[in-house]
Amino acid sequence: MKTNDLILQTTTKVVLFIIILFSFHIFFAGHYTPGGGFVGGLLTSGAIILLMLAFDMKTVSQILPVNYIYMAATGLLFAGGTAAGALFFNVPLLTHAFGHVDLPILGDTALHTATIFDLGVFLVVVGVTMTIIQTIGEDE
Amino acid sequence: MKEMINFLILPLLIPFLTGILLIFFAKNVVIQRWIAAISALFNVVIAFLLVQKVRNDGIQTLDVSSWQAPFGITLVSDMLSALLVLTTTIIAFTSIIYSFRSIGVEREKYFYYPALNFLIVGVIGAFTTGDIFNLFVFFEVLLMASYVLLVLGGTKIQLRETIKYILVNVISSALFVIAVAYLYSVVGTLNMAHISVRLDDLGQSGIITVIAVLFLIVFGLKGGIFPLYFWLPGSYYAPPAPVMALFGALLTKVGVYAIMRTYTLFFIHDTGYTHQLLMILTIITIVVGVIGAIAFSDIKKIIIYNIIVAIGVILFGVSVMTPDSLAGSVFYLIHDMVIKAALFLLIGIMIAITGTSDLRKISGLIRRYPGLGWTFFIAALVLAGIPPFSGFVGKVLIVKGGFESEQFLGAGIVLASSLLVLFSIMKIFINGFWGTPQDYKGETNVPVRKLLIAPVILVTISVLYGAGSEIIFPYISQAAETLANPSVYIEAVLKEW
Prior knowledge:
The complex is a heterodimer. Chain A has five helices and two strands. By secondary structure, chain A is mostly helical. Chain A has one domain. In chain A, strands 1-2 form a two-stranded antiparallel sheet. In chain A, strand 1 (98-103) and strand 2 form a beta hairpin. The longest helix of chain A has 25 residues, at 114-138. Chain B is mostly helical. Helix content of chain B is 78%, strand content 2%. Chain B contains 21 helices and two strands. Chain B has helices at 10-24, 29-57, 79-102, 105-109, 112-128, 132-151, 156-187, 192-202, 206-223, 232-237, 241-265, 271-295, 299-320, 323-354, 365-368, 370-384, 390-404, 408-433, 448-467, 469-484, 486-494, and strands spanning 60-63, 74-77. A two-stranded antiparallel sheet of chain B has the order 1-2. Chain B is globular, with a radius of gyration of 21 Å. The chains are: A mainly alpha, B mainly alpha. Chains A and B meet through helix 4 of A and helix 1 of B.
């Protein structure tokens, strides 16, 4: 029997973007306030899971042809790379650099290498969560 | 060139980055093998340089992310830690090259090498960290990787044992956090050197003894001392040989190392209770291990019970707490890691040839495989500690320490255990290698020569380790000195204190 999930699908198409934008907001907010890569990553995976619920896994993997294991590995590479980057400057591992940079449009912006680390965390969280969900979902 | 301050982190960072890189090459087994082997060999060299550096310049410390000790996480490489890191890298390398011909392409495609590298990260991290909570974190890292390695392949016995293994370790991890929380609530710090200072100021009170016993339970569960070893013979029985070698040589020894560290750095004020308890448990551990090693006629089980014996012997040396016995423990610990790895790899070949681990179904292997037979014979002598092999030196020192502090019963049992260990291992040699040669199904497919490379490297190292004990001993005694005298460790970490 085919279930009618028109309402869910229509709502998802709108809500999805709100969730993803909010997850980015949370991700960047984590710099000074509660939030960060972990929560942001969970929200993004929440959005993708919603997409999977509304449609089905096949459709979603067509929309987002991502290998989530590689995604997690890329995230690890970002985080590990940021940590190891300290070696090139001969400062203790994980020491981060920061400063204010005058960017066009955005103006005076505080940039911080911790953000790259956090991006790594974000990717790992999305990658791992989606791998787990997919593995469970595939298991009929 | 300016001195590289991050040097001690390299043995940890290399397998970490290698592990990540290997995930991308999951489907290309040949590239994976090359990368894994080269990086592991490179890591051996780095670890060797680290040992030399500690020998020349003393204890190395690194305040990660530039937070000064005791506020941030500090990594500490004293001689004990550096030596264990070196041993770990050697065992990692040999297990990797042994895996090429034995583990099977299916496992290799499913993230075997990444998991192996992450296991090494956890083990080396646990040996290197100077922060008790960070120790917990690295325990988790190595446990996660060990879950993967244990279950990978998905045979029935593996699935069954993995469930037990995960259950035991989840409980023990929970206890670990509880123990750390108790300790933190008493001393208000997590830096291991700082904890030692604070405990010194406080003196031993009842609560600290309780925490000491709690830590003993946690690490004893990982290390497999009596009565907490119950999960070990089952779980270590399940995975294929190279994984068994990694587990048997490394994982239990992390628990042993943690007991060594905490019982020489933290809980040294009420040794009448804590170390006495440890001693009683280790003596029973030896006895139980020996009984198991003699009773079983399954080659895997015999070697697994020999792990338990060794853990008892090493920790007996720690519980005696004389400089001699500590040096003996360090010496024996490294000896045991190398030779256990070698033995697991050797019986892995025997099982590959015969298709069984039941000793009663194996005989006459030496006729067709003399190389395997004689390597096993030498490994057996090394394990039992026949002079001049390396087991001897360690045991002599441990027994000497035992006699000096008038622990005649314990020292006597350590001595007697060597004889019985020799008996248990010779049982494999006599029954398995002597007697009438048999034909085994599928034995022609086993690349025995190529498989022998890794165990031969390990046996050679342990023979040299025994023969060159004159050269090696200064390193060992430097490691034992730090254990016997915590102020060296504390000064190196906290500097101005």
